[in-house]
Amino acid sequence: MYTFLAGIALLIIGYFTYGKFIEKLFGVKQERATPAYVNADGVDYIPMSTAKNSFIQLLNIAGTGPVFGPIMGALYGPAAFIWIVVGCIFAGAVHDYLTGMISIRNRGAHLPELASKFLGKVMKHIVNAFAVLLLLLVGTVFVSTPASLLHLLTDGSVAVWIFIAAIFVYYIVATLLPVDKIIGRLYPYFGALLLLSALGVGVGLVVTGAPIPELSLQNFHPDHAPIFPLLFFTITCGALSGFHATQTPIISRTTKKEKEGRKIFYGMMIAEGIIAMIWAAAAMSMFDGYQGLSDILAAGGPGAIVSESSTVLLGAIGGTLAVLGVIVLPITSGDTAFRSARMIIADYLKIAQKKLSSRLWIALPLFAISVVLTQIDFNILWRYFSWANQATAVIALFVGAMYLYIAKKNYFVSLIPGTFMLVMVIAYILSQQIGFGLPMNVAWAGGVIGTIILLVLFFKAAKKARANNVPLEEDISNWDSAA
């Protein structure tokens, strides 16, 4: 219990200390106009309040990641708590803040545009394809998981395909309508439900004195579980997730002032870390040890853990509300995944999005592909999503490092977590069956050598960019209306 409570306390302290440090390092310009006003188009560029933007950002980035990921990560024991806390404060929240703020300084640009500007034009095409693939996988996964949870909630009386169809209909509407019509109006309520359900489970764990494992040298992780690199791909959204880099530009286009960035981008990542801590603790403590947890996961997946934990701790009514809060997570990330994909493709092809027809012909093919992907086994989709997700996080962290390097600021705050994760990404794809299936020692060697090569290329490009005075932000006077 002490490890769990200390972890949550550290996350909160991290927001007020390291978050403030990152904000000061970046250098907020309170007087600078934001894309929400300069590029206002009534569809994607619309000024909204800090509270609305914060809740929308939380729901956009959350998905099932801070719930399902930590539940599966609980099999690694208290080591999961370390990754959530350290990863969230020093990697995930930095990743989200820098991505959001750099986007604000550059017309609300998505990651492919930022990668093109700061890492080279070739990267625009690579990251564009990578980001759209990632968003399609996310959107598809976040159709299947809430449909399965709703199927469980109705005791199997309603077929899964009916929920899948209903969710797709919602996604189409939410993707096409202006951001303030559905997302801006409903998400604050969904956000409140999410936070209340997670806090309810957390308070229940404390009140009931749940036997949450403590961190110690003897109890670091059970049965010598292979933490490196698997833990960092099992727990993603609760610590570090590249998916967030595809979501923050949605809110960078609706943020009124740069000063709001720490609350919206850094702060909501911290909130997600707290949610991850709660669900990891619940999974570790409520199922008669790691073997019991493993058995339930094998039988019913993370959804079964959510349902049983919520009901035991909060009763029938409270448990149902908690499950609904978890169901909201993937749905409210799935719709914005498709929305982001539409926006990225529109930016890539330079197609204005004010007309409904322009949005429609981009979005409908995405949904058609996603329907086909729902036929693929969920576990296979999730493995590819996990790798693509963390690879995207590496790209976003290197974009942040390049920005700070050109600005002659402390770029190590982004480069260090980016470098660490790059080693993991290369080693993972080299060692796993979804990749090359090489022996682990060969994969580690490849990870280190590959990272060194890419770091040399990074510094070579960084020195050239600084010498050429690559502009860190776009001149507002040159911005045209996105209409």
UniProtKB/TrEMBL annotation:
<dbReference type="InterPro" id="IPR051605">
    <property type="entry name" value="CstA"/>
</dbReference>
<keyword id="KW-1003">Cell membrane</keyword>
<protein>
    <submittedName>
        <fullName>Carbon starvation protein A</fullName>
    </submittedName>
</protein>
<dbReference type="GO" id="GO:0005886">
    <property type="term" value="C:plasma membrane"/>
</dbReference>
<dbReference type="GO" id="GO:0009267">
    <property type="term" value="P:cellular response to starvation"/>
</dbReference>
<keyword id="KW-0472">Membrane</keyword>
<keyword id="KW-0812">Transmembrane</keyword>
<feature type="transmembrane region" description="Helical">
    <location>
        <begin position="224"/>
        <end position="243"/>
    </location>
</feature>
<dbReference type="InterPro" id="IPR003706">
    <property type="entry name" value="CstA_N"/>
</dbReference>
<feature type="transmembrane region" description="Helical">
    <location>
        <begin position="312"/>
        <end position="332"/>
    </location>
</feature>
<dbReference type="Pfam" id="PF02554">
    <property type="entry name" value="CstA"/>
</dbReference>
<feature type="transmembrane region" description="Helical">
    <location>
        <begin position="387"/>
        <end position="406"/>
    </location>
</feature>
<feature type="transmembrane region" description="Helical">
    <location>
        <begin position="442"/>
        <end position="459"/>
    </location>
</feature>
<keyword id="KW-1133">Transmembrane helix</keyword>
<feature type="transmembrane region" description="Helical">
    <location>
        <begin position="411"/>
        <end position="430"/>
    </location>
</feature>
<feature type="transmembrane region" description="Helical">
    <location>
        <begin position="360"/>
        <end position="381"/>
    </location>
</feature>
<feature type="transmembrane region" description="Helical">
    <location>
        <begin position="264"/>
        <end position="287"/>
    </location>
</feature>
<feature type="transmembrane region" description="Helical">
    <location>
        <begin position="75"/>
        <end position="98"/>
    </location>
</feature>
<comment type="similarity">
    <text>Belongs to the peptide transporter carbon starvation (CstA) (TC 2.A.114) family.</text>
</comment>
<feature type="transmembrane region" description="Helical">
    <location>
        <begin position="126"/>
        <end position="152"/>
    </location>
</feature>
<feature type="domain" description="CstA N-terminal">
    <location>
        <begin position="4"/>
        <end position="166"/>
    </location>
</feature>
<feature type="transmembrane region" description="Helical">
    <location>
        <begin position="189"/>
        <end position="212"/>
    </location>
</feature>
<feature type="transmembrane region" description="Helical">
    <location>
        <begin position="158"/>
        <end position="177"/>
    </location>
</feature>
<feature type="domain" description="CstA N-terminal">
    <location>
        <begin position="311"/>
        <end position="425"/>
    </location>
</feature>
